[in-house]
Every structure is written in C-alpha cells, then in structure tokens.
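Let us practice reading a record.
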Amino acid sequence: MLFIMGFLGLVPEAHRKESSLATGSIMLVWALFYQLSVGTVCYSLVAELSTRRLQIKTVVLGRNLYNIVGIICSVLTPYMLNPGEWDWGNYAGFFWAAICFCCIVYTYFRVPEPMGRSFAELDLLFERGVNARKFKSTDVDVFGEEVDERTMGAYEEKLEVRHLEVESGGVKS
C-alpha cells in the first residue's frame, strides 16, 4: 500500500485531485488494517517473548524504544509532507515502504514463533541460542534439562539472605 501511495505521486498534474482522493482513501484503509492486525501484535510479543527474569526490563526497553521511534516519525512526517519544507508529498510512501521492508526482513529472521510454547520452553530455547526460524520445529523437554549450578547457588544464596532478614526482624518489602 505504501508503494501505491508513492506511485500516486507520479500521477500527472491534470489528475491530481483524483490522486489526492486515492491517497487519502489508501491511508485510511492502511490505518484500519494496521490497527486491526499487526499494530497490536507488538504488545503481546514483547510480553511473551522475553525471558521471565528480564521481562519487566524488556517491556520497559521495548516501550521506550517504541516511544522514541514514534517521536522521530512524528517529527519527520510533517517535514516530508509539508509543501513549504521537503515537499515529498506521495513520494514519502517510498521512504516508509523501504523502512517497512527492512522491518519485515528483521522480523522474519529475528522474531521467533512462540505459538504453542510455554514460558519455560521459550526460556530454554533462548538459553540454547536456537535460531528464531527454528523455534517452531525444535523439540524441547523442559523437565529433562540440567540446571546450572551457578544459577541454583545464586538462588539459594538469595533465600538464605531473605531467611536471615526474616529471623532478625528486618523484613523489607
């Protein structure tokens, strides 16, 4: 759709009114489909794909990056469309189509498919360094795995510290 908007910029001046109507219609249809499909997926993916130990940090990092990119896009777009500034008009569609293409390539190679996987299975697949494209087909037995001694030692140490705090009456919340 973004490429179509870009090509509508090539319409001769005699048909500029029709081109403008088509551009507005395509923008509305694109926004509708985006918000009803892919636009809302990012919220569930950020929450589901991160490891449980880093989930809060991952969500915060993802939301901050989303807000920064949103600010950048909100600043760039008016310059692109404004006749008194860059005056790209419909050609801005080519720019955003190229950006979307880069995002699609990144998503294909880097974002794994979490469907049908438990959080423990996802954590194990990330720990093993499984390629994102192989997440769906890799067999995982969560209960057949060995736990790293360093991880268990750190966990037991935290329990001992917590136990000492409770015994001494210095419980922190």
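A brief commentary: The first helix runs from residue 2 to 8.
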